[in-house]
Design brief:
This protein is an all-alpha fold. It is 86% helix and 0% strand. Helix 2 runs antiparallel to helix 3. InterPro entries: DAGK (IPR000829), DAGK_sf (IPR036945), UDPK (IPR033717).
Length: 124
């Protein structure tokens, strides 16, 4: 069996598909648009408050976590709707679990944001 592409070419194609998927998420899914916008706002806040390197790492980890889990939630919802377009109790249960994962990620991100920004806001 002959490989259709080299290792480098395959990685470039993979990166292109990943970038296109991220672009589709940010431009078509309202929940991602909101969360991406919040990520941009807290990034601007990070520059304004001159947060530390560790705080930047935690903030970007939190943003990536929420966007990544929300992307997986969206994919699960799209697959579930494709497989079973009508209401089904088990499909609803699966979608609720995926949404719950987003909730946990968002709570973690909120907690990180509060730890970073409350002391900085109170110091103004």
């Amino acid at each position: 069996m002959k490989k259709s592409s080299s290792f480098i070419t395959g990685r470039i194609k993979s990166f292109r598909y990943a970038f296109m998927g991220a672009y589709k998420l940010v431009t078509t899914e309202h929940s991602i648009m909101v969360q991406f916008s919040i990520g941009v706002l807290v990034t601007i806040a990070g520059f304004y408050f001159k947060i530390s390197n560790v705080e930047w790492m935690l903030q970007f980890l939190a943003i990536g976590l929420v966007l990544g889990i929300e992307g997986m939630n969206t994919a699960i919802e799209k697959i579930a709707d494709f497989i079973h377009p009508d209401f089904h109790e088990k499909i609803g249960f699966i979608k609720d679990i995926a949404a719950g994962a987003v909730f946990f990620a968002a709570l973690a991100a909120l907690t990180i944001g509060l730890f970073i920004y409350i002391p900085l806001i109170l110091a103004l």
